[in-house]
Amino acid sequence: MLTFENTNKRDDALEAREASRRFWLPAPFRWDGQHRLRWVHGETLRGADVISPLGNCVAGCTTWYAMNSAHAVHLTWDWVASGTHQLAIEMADPLAVRSNLRLLGEDGPLDRIRAQIVLSRMAVSISWERVVSAVLGL
Description:
The chain has helices at residues 11-21, 112-124, 128-136, and strands at residues 27-30, 40-46, 50-52, 55-67, 72-83, 88-91, 98-99, 101-105, 108-109. The chain is of the alpha+beta class. The chain starts with 10 loop residues before the first helix and ends with a helix.
């Protein structure tokens, strides 16, 4: 997990938000390969810039929320932006999406790898790069 530099000097508020993410209740979700949730941007945090001979790099995390009739769910993942003249924004690790979704298939819960693939597909279906670009001022 990434560590973030607090540029707003609001340590208590950031810590409270991070703590609240740890206590989301598990939300069972039957995955049929077709069903799509409507994701809404929650927040995007930016870490400190790193300047190296290989180019500029900044990292952070983004959280998106959705609701159905029974549960509130979230997806959170880390991102990196790097480059020399123009920053390229991408997921830090596509198989490290964090969520309170507990994905169910026809035969019960999906195994860990299949669940991470589904969560990653959900994350890449969101236009999250535009939000990160705005946070970065691009």
